[in-house]
């Protein structure tokens, strides 16, 4: 049995989709906080189980009979290390044979603020004695493509990434990599640095957006604090705005760049470039 935590989320659903191309549905477990949101998965023959990172008692029963587990990192900033520790403890108690974890690109050396909790989780995995693999996911292309409608409306793509290059790939590419690791043998001990095959600056992304729309769209680089203030004024919660501004500032220092092409090698094809993802937007 292969289990996916956070299975009703954006990445989780894509991992399950990729797994179903490789293994029968009855060998996949979808672990979710609200089973009612995963009824469509149950209809596919997938085993849906209640599992809440913040309720350790649900994890122990959810992991029963599970051989391989994908821990998709929690989205509760500031709580993730504690929640992930609960998952690791329950997985060890259940005798899980492999725990794969979605970390962040170059976690151990990254200047990204969000890397700290990932490092804590990786350290907890090492200390646990569990067989584990680490999927250090780079940036999702969707993170920047979400800004396209606003960029088109205002004729400007805002950020604070300077000339930093971003090696992003769509979530689906990272999901496919997770499915490969979960279905392959001998994965314990592997740490994968995963990123898109190609990279771009935000100025280059603005040029692509401009070409697609047939109207001028320029990149406007802002100081980190000013960019955060703009995001807050646009309605984003302050912690999310802070995260995005920090990530851009780290991108300016190279935190979102990687040219190893490990992701493409793992999935057996080139990753989808940002231009193709942009073209697919309606």
| Fraction in beta strands | 5-15%
The residue ranges in which pLDDT falls below 50 over 5 or more consecutive positions are none
Supply the CATH class of one domain: Alpha Beta
Mean pLDDT over the residues: 96
**CATH topology label of one domain:** Rossmann fold
Task: Please give the share of residues in helix.
Answer: 40-55%
**Counting H and I runs of at least 4 residues, what is the number of helices?**
13
Q: What is the gyration radius calculated from CA atoms?
A: 19 Å
E-strand count: 9
CATH architecture of one domain: 3-Layer(aba) Sandwich
Strand order of the largest sheet: 3-2-1-4-5-6-8
Describe this structure as you would to a colleague.
By secondary structure, the chain is an alpha/beta fold. 44% of the residues lie in helices and 15% in strands. The protein has a domain at 2-137 and 171-194: NAD(P)-binding Rossmann-like Domain (Rossmann fold), CATH 3.40.50.720. The radius of gyration is 19 Å and the shape is globular. The model has no long low-confidence stretch (mean pLDDT 96).
Summary of the model, kept short:
By secondary structure, the chain is an alpha/beta fold. The protein has 13 helices and 9 strands. The strands form 2 sheets. A 7-stranded parallel sheet has the order 3-2-1-4-5-6-8, sandwiched between helices. Strands 7-9 form a two-stranded parallel sheet.
Fold blueprint:
Elements: E1 2-5, H1 10-20, E2 28-32, H2 39-43, E3 47-50, H3 56-62, E4 68-71, H4 80-94, E5 98-104, H5 115-128, E6 132-137, H6 141-145, H7 148-154, E7 156-159, H8 171-183, E8 191-194, H9 202-213, E9 218-221, H10 224-233, H11 238-251, H12 262-267, H13 274-279
Parallel strand pairs: 1-2, 1-4, 2-3, 4-5, 5-6, 6-8, 7-9
Helix pairs in contact: 1-8, 3-4, 4-5, 10-11
């Amino acid at each position: 049995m292969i289990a996916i935590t956070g299975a009703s989320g954006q990445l989780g659903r894509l991992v399950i989709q990729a797994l179903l191309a490789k293994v029968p549905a009855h060998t996949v477990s979808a672990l979710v906080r609200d089973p009612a949101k995963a009824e469509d998965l149950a209809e596919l023959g997938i085993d849906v189980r209640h599992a809440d990172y913040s309720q350790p008692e649900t994890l122990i029963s959810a992991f029963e009979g599970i051989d391989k587990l994908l821990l998709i990192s929690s989205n509760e900033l500031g709580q993730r290390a504690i929640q992930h520790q609960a998952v690791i403890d329950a997985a060890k108690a259940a005798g899980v044979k492999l725990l794969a974890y979605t970390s962040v690109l170059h976690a151990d050396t990254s200047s990204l603020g969000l890397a700290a909790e990932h490092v804590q989780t990786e350290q907890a995995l090492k200390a646990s004695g569990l067989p584990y693999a680490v999927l250090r996911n780079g940036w999702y292309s969707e993170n920047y493509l979400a800004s396209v409608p606003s960029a088109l409306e205002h004729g400007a793509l805002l950020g604070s990434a300077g000339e930093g290059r971003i090696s992003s790939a769509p979530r689906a590419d990272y999901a496919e990599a997770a499915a490969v690791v979960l279905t392959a043998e001998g994965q314990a001990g592997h740490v994968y640095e995963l990123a898109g095959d190609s990279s771009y600056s935000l100025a280059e992304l603005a040029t692509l957006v401009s070409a697609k729309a047939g109207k001028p769209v320029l990149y406007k680089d802002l100081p980190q604090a000013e960019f955060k203030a703009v995001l807050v004024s646009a309605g984003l919660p302050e912690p999310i705005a802070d995260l995005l501004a920090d990530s851009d500032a780290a991108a300016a220092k190279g935190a979102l760049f990687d040219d190893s092409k490990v992701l493409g090698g793992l999935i057996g094809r080139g990753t989808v470039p940002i231009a193709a993802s942009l073209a697919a937007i309606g």
